[in-house]
C-alpha cells in the first residue's frame, strides 16, 4: 500500500501520515505540496478548518453542501456516540436519542429525529427535563447552518469519488469537528462497502486533528474519531492528520502513522517519540521550508519543502 512522492524521496505513503508544527511553520504548505503530487492519481477529500485550501471542487456549508446525516447502513449507536461527543450527553440523554433513532429506521434526517424525540413519552418530571435537554441540543444542529447541511436526503458518496475540499471555516469551531466526524463516519461506511484493500485508493486530509483524535490517558477508551482513524487504514484509506504537536493527538493514533513530518520540532517532542537529535541539527530544523521525516524505529531524514503552487 504505497504511493511514492518524487519531491519527498524520504517518504513512501504506506499508511497514515501525521504532519506537525506550530502556526507559521509551513505544515499547511507541506500538505499542499503532497496533495499536488497525489491528487492527479487518487481521489482526495480535504476537511479544511480555516479556508486555506482550494483543491478540486470546493463545497461550503450553507452554499453548496447538503447531504443526509444518516446513511441507510449507519450504526445508530455510532451516530449517537458522535452526538454524545459534541454535547457531552448524560446516559439518559444518550439513550433517548438512541431509542428514537431505532424507531425511525432507514431514511432518517435530523428533522425526523427531532420529531421522534418530541413524541417520546415523558411520564414524570425527570424524564420531561431529559427530553427537553435533548431537544435543545438537537435544535442547535437542526436549525442553523449545520441543519442546512445535514437535513438533506442525498447520500454523501459524492464527497469520496473525486478531489473535494469541504470548507469548514464558515462554522463555529465546535461544529467544524462535529461535521468532520460525521463525514468521516460516512467515509468509513463508504470504505466498508468498497472492501479491504492493500493499496491506497483514497486520501483524506484532517486539519486540526486534535479536535477529532482526542488525546487521552492510556486506560481511557478511544474516542469516536480515533476508532475511525484506526479502522480506515485497512480499507486503503490514507489519512493525513495535521496538528501543532505530536502529543496533541492520542498516542495510539500517533503510533499508527507510518511517518511523521515535523516542522520546527522540539527536543521534548522528539524524546516522546523515542528519538534524539543533537542541538546543531535541531537548530537547522527550525528554519521554514525544512522538515524532519520520522519513520518507525526513529529513522530520521531532513527534507527541503518547496513552496506550493497555490
TrEMBL record:
User: Its Gene Ontology molecular function terms?
Assistant: 3'-5' DNA helicase activity; 5'-3' DNA helicase activity
Question: One Pfam family name from the record?
Answer: DUF87
Catalysed reaction(s)?
Couples ATP hydrolysis with the unwinding of duplex DNA by translocating in the 3'-5' direction; ATP + H2O = ADP + phosphate + H(+)
Q: Helicase HerA central domain spans which residues?
A: 14-142
Recorded family membership: Belongs to the HerA family.
What name has this protein been given in UniProt? DUF87 domain-containing protein
| Source organism per UniProt | Thermofilum pendens
Amino acid at each position: 500500500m504505497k504511493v511514492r512522492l518524487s519531491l519527498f524521496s524520504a517518504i513512501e505513503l504506506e499508511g497514515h501520515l501525521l504532519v506537525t508544527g506550530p502556526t507559521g511553520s509551513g505544515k499547511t504548505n507541506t500538505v499542499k505540496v503532497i496533495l499536488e503530487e497525489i491528487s492527479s492519481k487518487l481521489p482526495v477529500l480535504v476537511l479544511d478548518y480555516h479556508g486555506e485550501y482550494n483543491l478540486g471542487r470546493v463545497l461550503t456549508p450553507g452554499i453548496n453542501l447538503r447531504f443526509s446525516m444518516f446513511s441507510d447502513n449507519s450504526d445508530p449507536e455510532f451516530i449517537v456516540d458522535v452526538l454524545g461527543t459534541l454535547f457531552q450527553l448524560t446516559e439518559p440523554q444518550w439513550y433517548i436519542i438512541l431509542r428514537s433513532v431505532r424507531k425511525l429506521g432507514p431514511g432518517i434526517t435530523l428533522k425526523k429525529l427531532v420529531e421522534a424525540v418530541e413524541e417520546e413519552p415523558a411520564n414524570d418530571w425527570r424524564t420531561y427535563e431529559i427530553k427537553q435537554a435533548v431537544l435543545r441540543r438537537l435544535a442547535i444542529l437542526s436549525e442553523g447552518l449545520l441543519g442546512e447541511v445535514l437535513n438533506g436526503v442525498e447520500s454523501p458518496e459524492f464527497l469520496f469519488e473525486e478531489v473535494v475540499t469541504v470548507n469548514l471555516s464558515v462554522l463555529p469551531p465546535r461544529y467544524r469537528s462535529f461535521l468532520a466526524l460525521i463525514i468521516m463516519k460516512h467515509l468509513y461506511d463508504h470504505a466498508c462497502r468498497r472492501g479491504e484493500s492493500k493499496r491506497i485508493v483514497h486520501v483524506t486530509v484532517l486539519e486540526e486533528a486534535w479536535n477529532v483524535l482526542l488525546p487521552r490517558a492510556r486506560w481511557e477508551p478511544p474516542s469516536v474519531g480515533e476508532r475511525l482513524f484506526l479502522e480506515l487504514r485497512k480499507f486503503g484509506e490514507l489519512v493525513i492528520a495535521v496538528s501543532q504537536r505530536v502529543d496533541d493527538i492520542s498516542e495510539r493514533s500517533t503510533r499508527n502513522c507510518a511517518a511523521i513530518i515535523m516542522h520546527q520540532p522540539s527536543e521534548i517532542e522528539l524524546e516522546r517519540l523515542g528519538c534524539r537529535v543533537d542541538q546543531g541539527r535541531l537548530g537547522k530544523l527550525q528554519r521554514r521550508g525544512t522538515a524532519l521525516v520520522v519513520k518507525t524505529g526513529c529513522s530520521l531524514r531532513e527534507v527541503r519543502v518547496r513552496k506550493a503552487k497555490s
